[in-house]
Amino acid sequence: xxxxxxxxxxxxxxxxxxxxxxxxxxxxxxxxxxxxxxxxxxxxxxxxxxxxxxxxxxxxxxxxxxxxxxxxxxxxxxxxxxxxxxxxxxxxxxxxxxxxxxxxxxxxxxxxxxxxxxxxxxxxxxxxxxxxxxxxxxxxxxxxxxxxxxxxxxxxxxxxxxxxxxxxxxxxxxxxxxxxxxxxxxxxxxxxxxxxxxxxxxxxxxxxx
Length: 209
What we know:
- It is a single chain.
- With 209 residues, the protein is of the alpha/beta class.
- The protein has one domain: Rossmann fold (3-Layer(aba) Sandwich).
- It contains seven helices and seven strands, in the order ααβαβαββαβαβαβ.
- It has a seven-stranded mixed sheet, sandwiched between helices.
- The longest helix has 13 residues, at 68-80.
- The N and C termini lie far apart (37 Å).
- The mean pLDDT is 96.
């Protein structure tokens, strides 16, 4: 994504940006006043976390985005929202996620249309690679889930094997998720575009073994 100056500048103004997420480790539910904690990794411009937090006001959503411009756009949307949504935004790289959340603190992790990093030499950067899964497993609660959606069949195949081989069991699976209505799960911006083009959405849900 190209740099958007106003969005980068806005990061210093936002009330939803958490500049020291490690200081809230173990206290996120108290901070967001919620009983169920969701974390979206790679939130882009923030539509998914925002709309899900509005739809489920009893839940708390922490959106993570490493791109400054996208994070700034998400932060502005969060700040302008007037609902009772419980939201926070971390501008950072999810490779540090175990420094931000306590063991067993997170109830659901969302991986929505993550960068597929198609070249094999970059496989370790995929958010469903072994190094990331090991961290997710640590911060997930006993009954915690990872919910993944993508339009990329190669990433989906890779991810299914990585989850299977690294301590997770599948509880839901679809290779055409939006073939049926899923009003309980809002669409991301990418997802809306793919559905309009009638491209299949791949989805799987995993829990810790």
